[in-house]
């Protein structure tokens, strides 16, 4: 029984779509790091210029009623927080990734039409 299961697993792994999926996951992880850097190091500073140095990453609300200078200090103190600035940053990351995927799919479709 174990040999049959191993053979089935080998066939499953050898199929092209599983390998494509694995490659896609690795590339996606690398792409995510690039997008996060783009947002943190380029988009947020540019938004800061437009909005008067608005830094989304440090916008939060401590739910214990106390005031903390930074999100890191609030978390270090163990305070429950709504880190809505981090959420906005995640939305920006998602929108950039979605836009890049859209452009990639659009380019692939154009190539397929040739």
- Distance from N terminus to C terminus (CA atoms, Å) equals 49 Å
Tally the helices: what do you get? 4
- What is the H-and-E element order? HHEHEH
Classification by helices and strands = mainly alpha
By CATH, the architecture is named: Orthogonal Bundle
- What is the helix content? over 70%
Unreliable runs, pLDDT <50, ≥5 residues? none
Q: How would you state the average pLDDT, rounded?
A: 84
Q: Order of strands across the biggest sheet?
A: 1-2
Q: How many separate domains make up the residues? A: 1
What is the CATH topology? Answer: Non-ribosomal Peptide Synthetase Peptidyl Carrier Protein, Chain A
Strand percent estimate: under 5%
Question: In total, how many beta strands?
Answer: 2
Task: Sketch the major β-sheet.
Answer: 2 strands, antiparallel
Give the class-level CATH name: Mainly Alpha
Question: Can you tell me about this structure?
Answer:
- With 114 residues, the chain is mainly alpha-helical.
- The chain has one domain (2-113): Non-ribosomal Peptide Synthetase Peptidyl Carrier Protein, Chain A.
- Helix content is 75%, strand content 4%.
- The chain has four helices and two strands; from the N terminus they run ααβαβα.
- Strands 1-2 form a two-stranded antiparallel ribbon.
- Helix 2 (16-51) crosses helix 4.
- The longest helix is centred in the N-terminal third of the chain and has 36 residues, at 16-51.
- The radius of gyration is 22 Å and the shape is flat.
